[in-house]
Structure prediction request, 130 residues.
Amino acid sequence: MGLTKAAVYGICGLVYLAKHQDERLVSLTEVACEAKLPKKFLAKIFQSFVKCGLVKSYRGVKGGFRLGRLEDKITLREILECIQGPIRFLFLEDKAEQSNATLYRLKEVCREIEQFCQSKLESMTLVDLI
Prediction:
C-alpha cells in the first residue's frame, strides 16, 4: 500500500478547493498553478473526483470546480479509493498458508493492519489537512 502521484496531486487539489470553497468556482488552471501541479494530469484526476461525487464541475466562461460536499464530510479514504481503488495491504497468497501456522498468522496481521489503515483514513477529512 502506498500513495500514487495521482493520489498526492488529487489531495493537494482538493485541499486547494476546500480553502476557496466559500468564495467562488475555481478553475482547473488556477488549481494547477497555485498548487504547482501538472494541469493535464490534474484534469484526469478531477474527472475521477466528479464521477465519485467529491467534486462538482460547472461548464462555461464562469465555470470551474467546487467540492461536492463540505470539506468535513470528505474522508481521506474516499479520496484515495476514488483514485487508487480499495485500500489493501498486500499479502501474497500461498498454498501452504492453510497448513502453516506462521503464514496463517501473518495473513491475519496483514488484515489487522489493513483494517487499521482503513479506519484511520476514514476518520480523517479534508479539514484535517487544511
About this structure: The two ends are 24 Å apart (CA to CA).
